[in-house]
């Protein structure tokens, strides 16, 4: 990046924090659609919001412990632990109580955000000073430690998806057939939930708690408008996410805007373009298919 900065005079690439921001952004743009594609096709798009709010409770736990006990634990590390426990709680509530997934997600979301709010208030507002960066994301606060943590999460997510891809695909499209085939459906449901928790915490550094779920959904929604298969949708969603992240980070640096909000707005813009392109593609297909039939019609 330093070489590119020298060759093309790109000022923002001269800063170390921007190197980390772009690296983290590129990894997030792969991780989020990788898991989000499974979630969207399973109609579980809102689980990202539930786990993001629970991850906020994990951040609050880390900040509270550091303030009270004087430890130096990373709030992102506690966020990973709490979010993964919340992911398991969502699945267990659904299995034990026979409640719909949206009910268990609403319960976990409310509990997580309430816990975070209480922990912050117990410290007489002392934690509120550093909370904004977790709520809205911040390019300048992406540290080496957090980058290493994200690299670890990226490696785990990529490996697990690569190893369990066929089973996850089977469970996503036909749970009943998967059970008949001997696949442990509850186990793979938990795997997806825990991987989602990892993505949420990883993306929270740049996107913030409030907007992190958008990266799980918006690029995937755009990809489904132009893709003809699951694999195409997966690849297209990663491409759209990469474009959103790279353009969003660049714009946020130049205009001093919030990174998470800028990335989401770019992602939504790309979604609109994908919808229009998908409609145009569908109209062309219909026109091509109907052309031979029209040529065969008898002329009066």
**Proportion in β-strands:** under 5%
* Structure classification: mainly alpha
Q: Biggest sheet: strands, sense, closure?
A: none
The termini sit apart by 69 Å
Low-confidence stretches: none
The global form is globular
- Cα Rg: 22 Å
Strand count: 0
How would you state the average pLDDT, rounded?
Answer: 85
Fraction of residues in H or I helices: over 70%
Order of H and E elements: HHHHHHHHHHHH
Walk me through the structure.
By secondary structure, the protein is an all-alpha fold. 81% of the residues lie in helices and 0% in strands. The chain has twelve helices and no strands. Helix 10 crosses helix 11 (230-255) and helix 11 (230-255) crosses helix 12 (259-296). The longest helix is centred in the last third of the chain and has 38 residues, at 259-296. The protein is globular. The relative contact order is 0.15. The model has no long low-confidence stretch (mean pLDDT 85).
Could you write a compact summary of the structure shown?
This protein is mainly α and 300 residues long. 81% of the residues lie in helices and 0% in strands. Helix 2 runs antiparallel to helix 11.
Provide tags for this entry:
300 residues, mainly alpha, 12 helices, 81% helix, 0% strand
Q: What's the layout of helices and strands?
A:
Layout: H1 2-8, H2 16-41, H3 47-69, H4 75-97, H5 101-122, H6 132-136, H7 144-173, H8 175-180, H9 185-211, H10 214-224, H11 230-255, H12 259-296
């Amino acid at each position: 990046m330093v070489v590119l900065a020298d060759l093309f005079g790109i000022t923002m690439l001269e800063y170390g924090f921007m190197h980390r921001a772009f690296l983290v952004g590129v990894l997030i743009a792969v991780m989020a659609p990788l898991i989000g594609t499974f979630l969207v096709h399973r109609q579980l798009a809102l689980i990202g919001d539930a786990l993001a709010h629970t991850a906020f409770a994990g951040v609050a736990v880390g900040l509270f412990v550091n303030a009270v006990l004087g430890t130096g634990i990373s709030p992102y590390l506690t966020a990973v632990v709490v979010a993964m426990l919340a992911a398991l709680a969502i699945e267990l509530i659904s299995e034990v109580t026979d409640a719909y997934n949206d009910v268990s997600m609403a319960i976990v979301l409310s509990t997580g955000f309430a816990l975070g709010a209480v922990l912050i208030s117990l410290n007489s507002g002392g934690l509120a000073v550093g909370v904004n960066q977790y709520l809205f994301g911040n390019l300048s606060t992406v540290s080496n430690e957090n980058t290493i943590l994200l690299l670890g999460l990226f490696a785990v997510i990529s490996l697990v998806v690569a190893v369990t891809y066929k089973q996850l695909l089977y469970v996503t499209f036909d749970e009943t057939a998967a059970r008949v085939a001997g696949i442990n459906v509850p186990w793979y449901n938990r795997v997806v939930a825990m991987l989602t928790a990892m993505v949420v915490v990883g993306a929270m550094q740049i996107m913030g708690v409030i907007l992190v779920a958008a990266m799980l959904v918006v690029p995937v929604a755009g990809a489904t408008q132009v893709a003809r298969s699951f694999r195409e949708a997966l690849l297209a969603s990663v491409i759209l996410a990469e474009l959103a992240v790279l353009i969003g980070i660049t714009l946020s640096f130049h205009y001093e805007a919030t990174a998470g909000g800028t990335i989401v707005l770019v992602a939504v813009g790309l979604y609109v373009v994908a919808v229009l392109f998908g409609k145009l593609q569908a109209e062309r297909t219909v026109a091509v298919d109907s052309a031979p039939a029209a040529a065969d019609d008898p002329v009066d």
